[in-house]
Design a protein that fits this description.
Radius of gyration: 17 Å
Structural class: alpha+beta
Number of helices: 8
Strand order of the largest sheet: 2-1-3-4
Number of strands: 4
Low-confidence stretches: none
Strand content: 5-15%
CATH architecture of the largest domain: Up-down Bundle
Mean pLDDT: 97
CATH class of the largest domain: Mainly Alpha
Shape: globular
Distance between the termini: 39 Å
CATH topology of the largest domain: Glutathione S-transferase Yfyf (Class Pi), Chain A, domain 2
Order of helices and strands: EHEHEEHHHHHH
Helix content: 40-55%
Length: 211
C-alpha cells in the first residue's frame, strides 16, 4: 500500500496517474496547499521542501518526495513504464528531466503571470508566453517523430508531461497550433487510468479537451 500526499496540481496528478496506470493500491491524503497544509510538521517529515506530492511505501517504509523521483521509484518498484535497456531508459529519463527542469517550472511561472496576475508585469507575461510556445514547439517536434514522448512506448515521461499540458488554457495555448501535441494529449486523456488519476484527491473539473 502506498500513502499518497497530494493536491489538485499537475505535479500531484503525475503520481496519481502513475499509481492508477501501475495498478498499485494507494490511500490518498489531501494536502490543501491553499490552506498551507504543506507546512504541517508531520508532512515536513516526509517532504522537507514542503511541496506535494510525496509518498510513503508501507511495504518498505520508504518515503519519497519530488514528483520525478516518485515516478522513478514507482516504475522501478513495478518494473513498468521505465525501460531497463540502457539507451531506452536514458531517453525516458532525459524527457522526465526536461519536464522537471524546464516545462514544469516555466509553465508554472506562466500560470502566475498569464492567468493569476495578468496586466501586472508585461515584461514577464511576454517572456513566459514566448518560452511556453518554445517548449510546446520542442514537444511538438518530438511527438512528430515518436508516438510517445520518449519513443514508441508510453512511459513515466508521458505521465510527467501530460498534466502540465492539461492546463494549456492557463498558458494561452491553442493545441490546434501544435498538432502532434494535440494528437498525443487526446490519446492520453482517453486512458482510463489518466481519467481516474486526474480527479485525485478530488474532482475540480472535467479534463479540458481541445476543440
Amino acid at each position: 500500500m502506498i500513502d499518497l500526499y497530494t493536491w489538485t496540481t499537475p505535479n500531484g496528478r503525475k503520481v496519481s496517474i502513475a499509481l492508477e496506470e501501475m495498478a498499485l493500491p494507494y490511500e490518498v491524503h489531501s494536502v490543501d496547499i491553499g490552506k498551507d497544509e504543506q507546512f504541517a510538521p508531520d508532512f515536513l517529515k516526509i517532504s522537507p521542501n514542503n511541496k506535494i506530492p510525496a509518498i510513503v511505501d508501507r511495504e518498505t517504509g520508504q518515503s519519497v518526495f519530488e514528483s520525478g523521483a516518485i515516478l522513478i521509484y514507482l516504475a522501478e518498484k513495478t518494473g513498468r513504464f521505465l525501460p531497463t535497456e540502457p539507451k531506452a531508459r536514458m531517453k525516458v529519463l532525459e524527457w522526465l528531466m526536461w519536464q522537471m527542469g524546464g516545462l514544469g517550472p516555466m509553465l508554472g511561472q506562466a500560470h502566475q503571470y498569464l492567468k493569476f496576475n495578468r496586466g501586472k508585469a508585461p515584461f514577464a507575461e511576454e517572456r513566459f508566453a514566448k518560452e511556453v510556445r518554445r517548449l510546446y514547439g520542442v514537444l511538438d517536434g518530438q511527438l512528430g517523430r515518436e508516438a510517445h514522448v520518449a519513443g514508441p512506448d508510453y512511459s513515466i515521461a508521458d505521465m510527467a508531461i501530460w498534466p502540465w499540458v492539461s492546463r494549456y488554457e492557463w498558458q494561452d495555448v491553442d493545441l490546434n497550433d501544435f498538432a502532434n501535441v494535440k494528437r498525443w494529449y487526446i490519446e492520453l486523456a482517453r486512458r482510463e487510468a489518466v481519467q481516474k488519476g486526474y480527479h485525485v484527491p478530488k474532482f475540480t473539473q472535467d479534463i479540458p479537451m481541445p476543440g
